[in-house]
Structures are given as structure tokens and as C-alpha cells.
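Sample 3 of the quickstart, ligand adenosine monophosphate:
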Amino acid sequence: MAVIGIDLGTTNSLAAVWQGGQVCLIPDKTGNYITPSIVAVDADGNIMTGYAAREEELLAPDRCASNFKRFMGTEKRYCLAGHEFRPEELSALVLKKMKEGAEAFLGEEVTEAVISVPAYFNSDQRYATKLAAQLAGLACERIVNEPSAAALTVRQEELSAKGQEGEAAFYTMDSGEASEQCLLVFDFGGGTLDVSIVDCFENIVEITAIAGDNHLGGTDFDEVIAAAFCAENGMEWETLDRKEKTALMFEGRRCKETLSSQEAVTMQYQRDGKCLGMELTSEKIFSLAPGLFRRIKNTISRALSDAGLGISDISQVLLAGGSSRMPAVQMFLSRLFGRGITAGVEPDFLVARGIGIYAGIKERQEEVKDILMTDVCPFSLGLRVQGDLADGEGKMCMMIERNNILPCRVTKYFVTASEFQEEIRLMVYLGESYHPEQNLKIGELCFPVPKAPAGKEGVYVTFTYNINGILEVFAASSSTGQEKSAAFVSGRGQFSPEQLLQKQDWIQAQQHLLQEEEERKAILSMADRLFAETSGAAREYVEQVIQYYNHAWKSKSLIRIRKAGKAVLQSLLAVDMRLRQSMFDEGMFEEAFLWEDGAEE
Ligand code: AMP
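Result:
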């Protein structure tokens, strides 16, 4: 049974599958690859999704829901024609449509999908995505960050092009030349902006930093344009009813999208028998939305600074998401990066293709099974602890810092703060602020401790963040031996079948390192031998080489480990060679001598 990849977008969704040695986008019955992520309930109570729902949205916006992906995992509820929906349920309806489309295309039942989400999605949002898949009858073991999927598309295309050129397949371990690239993925959709720095080396695609704005996307531009239209035509945006706002935003969006194929467009709207208008150009969008562009710039700066890179270190900027088609955005990026930045082929399909490739990796398809992809934690996770002044103010104790490579695990010891307290409340927060109140509380775990003077009892707390970006917190007491753990999704502290899957993921992720483990063993035993066989400067050199390798190993970065492995192996082989050469030289001399002796005989 095929595993499909689904790009569940804020505005549009797409599905892809690995088939016949390549990724293949799945069309719907009418040949369209794109399904608008919109749900509507018609006058008869029938549920519609996709294009039909998009049409309905214009007629009866009250019966339609869009942009619900932004609210996945929140308490927000949508009431459509008397039915109440959670954002997950609405997403499930879209996913169900994708599943059915895939089944029709493939001619077989589809029960498993890998789904892409914005890198900036928190545990709640990821959990909600899995729940949506479950509701749609799809098992979703793996959630992939959208920028990772986009980078995967570009990388896989390069790898297969290399393969086709007749070179050794690039993604196998015995490949020839190494190739390294540092990509910046600028993924700008309808509702979110994700900027990721991706290092590619041989067959490894490694995210090294992520920065995002969960509430910045094409819709914000639509609103700015619609509001400007009102201002120019003597209307007050704030006082319009929902239907008028929807119609104006729809028109604003249409004009914004037209600007990617023509330089200027006239936005028109009929009101009170009059035809109102406004000229729109990319330059005008610049002047209308300085705040939005500033937010774009800040997000890019944060990603670069987290990766410790400057603009000149970026070898390629990849544009993904519908909003990256805006010429105003491309012009802005070109100015920022000091070079022309244009959309490659089909930016709308970049993530979908990547998630389709990932579906192939998940199925261990021959052509892609050796591609490794690692991700990072997009935000810091920590516990609220007593503040420095012990005045009731709390402060953050960061457990996992943002941009740590996944999966990751950190353990720290916490002691009681008050005299004879009976339990330690572990309050888990997500965010970068020193002040817990300014971060997002994602749950808590209460841990009983024996009554004792302050600071005498304590608990070991372990944070485990898995490759799907879901946090598990484990607490253990050293004095009572008691243990407690919970998957951290706010409001859901219980164990669930989900956790079983998380553990499988953990084990799977460990397997990624197997190849490196083997290499490591080989390197270390070779080093041991060389250390024993050498002395003086050569011995010191071997020791330094090993320290360097161990340092890379500690970083957990597959790229660093792989690179260091190569370099270290080369250095050790050189030492080995020298060592043997001097023996071999002597041997040769002896052999030659013997041979000469023999010849004389
Ligand atoms: P996504 O969430 O990636 O599907 O992106 C949807 C967003 O991309 C919406 O805000 C669209 O208005 C926007 N978009 C799609 N095509 C274009 C285009 N040609 N020019 C400008 N914006 C576009």
C-alpha cells in the first residue's frame, strides 16, 4: 500500500507519491493538483471542500471556513450552518479529500501519509495535525517541516541529475565527489512565513536554523490592499460587514496575484451602483506594507544569526509557497541578498514534491532510501523555576534551546524551593523570553516529593524532543525511585497510542546514526592501534585528530560527523601509510636485496 505525502497548506493543499522512481504530484479528477484548503457547508447541510468551497465562500462566507490551519491545536471553533468544527476537523475534511483523490489516482486504498507542517508549528499544532490525519483515516507517523521538504526537492533533483549524468549515484555512501550547499529556504504561504537554513552535504539534508512568523502571509497583504482600497475610495475598512470584507480581500488577492504576470492592475469593486477603483503595482505594495516587509527582514536576520552565517554564506535562496511569487517580495529579497532572486520552477509545488519524496524515503524506495534528513527544534523549551529574588516571580530554565538538532534529550536536576513542600510542579514553557509569562505554557507535570527542608529533595527531569517535534517530559526522583512522564501537548497530559508511535520514531531516528556508528567504531579502533604503534609527534597528532573527531561527534550534526569522519579517516590513513611505508620501504629494500641475492645465485 502506497504512502502518500500531503502538503497541507493554509491556502492550498497538494498530495504526491513516489512512483516509478520519481516523485509524482497527484491530480484530482479534473487534472488539478491544487485543492484549496477551504470547507463549506451548503444550504442543504452538505459538506464541500476545495474549489467548490472556495466558490461558496464568495456567496456565503458565513458557511465557509478558510485559514483554519493557523488555528490548529487551539480552542478556536468554527460554526458553519449550525455545525461546530474544531480546526482539526476542518483539516481532516481536506485531508480526506486528498486521500480519496490519491486512492482514485492510484487505484488502491491509502491508509498512511506523511504530512508537512510549517517549521514553526509547536507541539500542539503538530499533535493537532496528526489528529486530523487520524480523523481522516490516515496514519501519520511522520510530520516533516515544510522547508525541509522544499530543500529535499532541490537536493533530490540534483542527486538524480548527477546519477543520470552517469556519475556514481551521489546519495550512496561510496559516492565520488562531495558537494556542499548552504540553502536558505524562504517559504512564504498564505498565513505563515518560515525561513530555514539548510546545509546539504552528499546525501544529507540538515536543517541548521529555523525562524518563522506564524502569523504573516499572503492574506496579510490581501488585507493591506483591501484596506488601502477603502482608504482611497472613502470607505472605512473597519466598519464593513464580513461579506464586503471577504469580497474586497478576494479582489485584492486577485490583483496581487495578477502582478506576478503584469506590471500594473486596476482593482475594481461595485458599491451603491458605482464602480470604485485603485491602481496597484508592486512598488505600491512596498509603500503600503512597510511593516510586513520589516517582519520578513527580521525573520531572515534571526535565521541567519542563529546559524552563525551572513548573507554571503548562502549559496542559493529557494522560494517556496504561493506568496513568494509576489514580485514585490522577490524584489525585496533581491535587494537584501544583493543578487537577483527569482522563483524556480513551480514554487507552489516545491513542498509537495519534497513531501512526496519523503513518502518514498518512508517506503524505503530504492532511489531515495539513503537520503538522510535531520531537523532542528524551532523554539526553546524549558521549565519555570523560582526567580533570583525568590519573591514569587518565576524565571525560565531552558532545557532544550532552539535550533538543537532533533531528536534531542536533556536531563537536569531540580530541587525544592520551599520548606517541606510535598510536590514539585514542573511547568513547561515554549519560547525565548527569560520571563515565563511572555512564553507559551504548554503543560505541567506534578511530581510528589518527600517532605524535607528546602533544597534537600529533588527530581531529575528529562526533556525528549522527537523527530516529529513532539515533546516528552520524564521526571524521576533519586530518593524514592518514583518516575512519571507525559507527552507535552497542552491540555493532554495522558499517555495515548500516539506515544507508542513517538517511541517508534525515536528508534527510527537512532537508526539514522547507524552508518556513522559503524564508521566511528572503525575510526576509533584504527586510532587506538596507531596511537599504540606511534610515538612522539606522530602520537600527538593521532591524539589531536581523535579529539577533533570526538568533538564533531558530540555536536550530533550528521554533516559535521560525516565531514569530520572523512577528514579524520584521511589523516589516519596518511599516518598509517607513513608508518607502513617506512616498514614497507625497509621490506622492499630487504626484498630487493634478497631478490638481487637470488638473482646472483
Ligand atoms: P500557500 O499557502 O503556499 O498555498 O500560498 C497561498 C498564498 O499565495 C495566497 O495568499 C495567495 O494569494 C498567494 N499567491 C498564490 N499565487 C500567487 C501569485 N501568483 N502572486 C502572488 N501571490 C500568490
